[in-house]
Design a protein that fits this description.
12 helices; 3-stranded antiparallel sheet; alpha+beta; 8-stranded antiparallel sheet; about 20% strand; binds cobalt (II) ion
Length: about 475
Amino acid sequence: MPAAKDPNAAEESPSLGLPAPDGAGPSGGDDHKASDGLSKAQKKRQKKKQAAARKNAGGSSVPADGEGLEDEGKVTDNDAAPSEVKEGKDGDMLKKKKKKRKPKTSQTCTQTDPPTIPVKDLFVDGKFPEGEWQSYGADNVWREKSDEMQRRVELQEDMINDARQAAEVHRQVRQYMQGYIKPGMTMVHICETLEDMVRKLIAENGLDAGIAFPTGCSLNHVAAHWTPNTGDKTVIEYDDVMKLDFGTHVNGRIIDCAYTHTFNPMFDPLLEAVREATNTGIRETGIDVRLCDVGAAIQEVMESHEVEIRGKTYQVRCVRNLNGHSVAHYLVHGANSVPIVKGGEATRMEEGEFYAIETFGTTGRGRVVDDLECSHYLKNGAMGYVPLRMPRAKQLLHTINTHFGTLGFCRRYLDRLGETKYLMALRNLCDSGIIDACPPLCDTKGSYVAQFEHTVYLHPTKKEVLSRGDDY
Ligand SMILES: [Co+2]
């Protein structure tokens, strides 16, 4: 989810804080129960099958069919000594032993296909996979060898483990969606499939774990902030370019990560340009690095690409008023913007910050404006108490505070909570400055915009590309 620099202003202006998330929802209770039920059933079955599984130790994962529950027996037998011994070396044996009392399941079991098992039930030692590690530049390599820095890394282990869990959910969901999305599907179906899967895999629980912001699925010249409102009939087509930008969080540690989905290979060079630009931004990112230098490096790579689409050649352009951004606790848009063109701010990145590094390449003019019906909303964190006269607005604000807090939400998320006829109240909340509307951001009609995005953490020693996967 990008931070937008005043899309409709004549030129540059400060970025607006984008909210993002959405919590779980009571009315979504069904999903929730279903996932709990699943994991209980899973555990039962697993016990039964444990003997068999032992014989099979190291058994490879096999996708289960349909419900996939049958698959649980295919686990690695891990409640035995070897893993205990390994963990002893980490020095946090005590904690682990505590967690391990009477292992309910073995350490790894395999995900079903389609995915249904909460990721936390797949990693029963409670440790989620690390992202991709990258070293900082020469000035900062001393950090990797410093015991003091290493100690600081260890102090953040629990916090970063939450982010890793959110990242693992993101990877599993998007990789499933990559094989699932087909031309002819409605955008509503795509989003609901994805969102239901996130809710299950993250074991959605109020504001403790869930979706971090609306599922962006902006098409073609629409760069960002579009998701269907209820009743929307838009269908994805073979020649569409869809930016699938969704967020997950555990305890407010947000993963903001996106890729571009296409069917027609004629768009491959455009996607390649943007993927390369994003990876350049990630490589440049680091402690003490100036934000403007990241932007300049991104632009250089992006705009070195030419693409041919339907016989016409375009130089790929960066969308100059869209930005990456820092990510704060429960806030998808932190204080800093990461430009994707030269000429940005000289502010330096700091140890302990999360950054969403995202770039947008386009065949259009390289500047977005607000257009189309709004779906995305976000609480304005800077706003103090505002007295509200309209009772319906008060009530709606209560729902928003309860389920989303400072996370982003969309109209569909209100609908599923049972809210109806809220548009007037929502308008009132926007007019009073409590809620920001984040309308779709569009380049010129007929153009194509692509996006890739990852969330990176600046550890004291190295950076970790938390959301990196085999796919991108
Ligand atoms: Co973002």
